[in-house]
Amino acid sequence: MPKQPLPGDRKTDDAGPHHHEVVLLHLPHSLLFLMRNIYHLRCGSHNPNPSGNGVPMIAIDEFLFPRRLVAAPGAASRLGRLMLGDQVPLGAVMVIADSIVHELGLDRGLVTDLEDNGYQPLVFAEITGEPDDLVLKRAVAAARSAGAVAFIGIGGGSALDVAKLVAHAVGGDVEPDELRGPVAPIADFPFLALVPTTVGTGAEATRVAMFAVGGAKRAVLSPQFVPAVAVLDADLVAGLPAPVVAATALDALSHALESAMSTTSNDLTWQFSVQAARTVLDRLPPALAGDAEARGDLLYASFLAGVALNAGVVLGHSMSYVLAARHGLAHGVGCSLALPYCLAYNQTMDAPRAARLAAEVLQDEASGLLDLATRVARLSADAGLPTDLLGFGSGTEEPAQLAARVVSDYPRPTNPVPLETGRLTTLITHLRSGDLAGAWTAMGATP
Ligand SMILES: NC(=O)c1ccc[n+]([C@@H]2O[C@H](COP(=O)([O-])OP(=O)(O)OC[C@H]3O[C@@H](n4cnc5c(N)ncnc54)[C@H](O)[C@@H]3O)[C@@H](O)[C@H]2O)c1
Ligand SMILES: [Fe+2]
Fold first, then answer.
1. Which of 1, 8, 15, 270 has the largest CB neighbor count within 10 A?
2. Residue-range domains of the chain with CATH
3. Going by CA atoms, what residue is nearest to atom 39 of ligand 1?
4. Where does the Alcohol dehydrogenase iron-type/glycerol dehydrogenase GldA domain lie (predicted)?
């Protein structure tokens, strides 16, 4: 079973990206946001972990960010020129594409630009949803026989994860079967660019790649999986089906809020968490109504939330994994069910921090964590996502079974409130009937 990285796992040598360059962000407030971050860090005026004596505590163990971010409509079709300018050697470039993305021709501009700039693109478009070891092995074999020296992933988290894994396997001469957990960085990690076409995982910013072996998901971790180039091209999400927009945006919102609740949250991840959460709350409704600019904003928010994952996720993702496995749900649907209840469970976390999270995300000093949970639940319902388990035929025995699996398979040492099977059973009993108010009352007692 996959486990999220423990804080100790994150102490790997960072042989990966180290230049933090933002080429172009398409949101007007983005620059202000980054400038505000720098102001806060220099002046210590923001502190999600107040020490109580007014002295800011800024402790950042490690913070990974792609070496370059390019965010602009049409940017994917300029990647070949960018690679040439960056002296990426000419040769075979493997483009690992989601099959639907390829059928829709969303990778065409990228492939043409690679050819125009002297590269030899090899398109591997066999990613049909969550990848397994079989498709990974086929991709590795194709890359080796083509002599691929650079790798580009284009698609949802599934395609991006395969690109990370193939780059590592081919560059380090590692067999796919050996890939599990934290892997040692390799000497010359090949050029890797990631181009997301969904608005959820933020995989273009994370150190994680997942694939399934025999039906069980396996997480592979390397700082080198944070790519040389992340490309946010809003044109690629303009036609994304509304149910995928809704589910993946709730995945991004979960990354944003869970990373902020994590005990490993720091001043910098907090900034990304808050901005990502605000953007999803504001921009999902118009994005679902077909507003292309709002969809581009969600793509950006998904990236921000991926950066916030430097602090990892907490209980919500544990619940989402067991819910998705039990009822065959997309990852984002499981996240949307779990997130308000994760907030309910964690309401007894550090009080100033909880108050600050709600106030900053909702931009209202009077708001509390319950207001935030209610707003999230309403957003999911309005987006057409399920808000209870009864519709899936969930029986009365299910909450205790799911709670036991959360604790045994996905323990979260970084959750701000310790996971306890009895309380989780009560929590999931309320989730089963969609009773957030009841969950809030039940979880309000001191654990
Ligand atoms: N690396 C990480 O940090 C990380 C984090 C969380 C999840 N994941 C992994 O990511 C995967 C989930 O990613 P996802 O939610 O993006 O889903 P996905 O990649 O499986 O794609 C979801 C669906 O959307 C389709 N699709 C993608 N882009 C499209 C477009 N532009 N137009 C039309 N259809 C499109 C795909 O064909 C697929 O059917 C899982 O395998 C999960 O394990 C990775
Ligand atoms: Fe997720």
1. 270
2. 7-17+67-237 (3.40.50.1970), 242-444 (1.20.1090.10)
3. 129
4. 66-233
